[in-house]
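re the bet — no i am not wrong, look at it urself. input seq straight from the record:
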Amino acid sequence: MADSRDKQPVDLVIADKSPLVQSAMASLFGGDQRFHLVAVCADGERFVEAVDRLSFSVGVIGWDMPYLSGRGVLEALRERAGNPRIVVYSGNAGRDVPLQVMQLGGAGFCSKSEPPERLLEIVLAVAEGRMVFPFIDVQRAADDPLAGLTAREHQLLASLAGGRTNAQIAAEMDISLNTVKFHLKNLYGKLTVHNRAQAVACYLKARGTEAF
């Protein structure tokens, strides 16, 4: 049997909004001969550019990133062939995030609350073709189209169902109008609808209520 040290190192690119996390991951992977760190990116847009320019087998990305989020990265790569396998490494406490990563074609999820060694294990497993996720109630997700929404998205959807305008929602949630539009775009994508009327109809149906 060949020694594991004879295996080719896993080529990977990492992306995270925090310089501290970038540095920590660079040290973690750079100090382990099982990995070859190809590049470090500060946001999702630069990561997608790295996919176009560089050859690597695994990407480790954050979920909440500027310019293009982890969700945006997965959506951008979803229809493209030959992409690296993606592990989302996130401190986002939303229980729905691993489910979203799986639904969008990600290969693994690791919480930043886990020991660093766990991230190494997950990346190695993903490089071998496996998928690694915490427990996900897939049946619940299939039965409830709202199961994958964050708390803020539930609040946003309830406001839509209440007939509130974007400006009213912005005032209620103390966010900008552009941020409301950004959240609505993500919300429509998760519900696979195209406008607020369809989103409200989905909400009412899930709640067992008919629209008037």
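see?? The CA atoms of residues 11 and 51 lie 12 Å apart. told u. also The longest strand covers residues 35-41. so pay up
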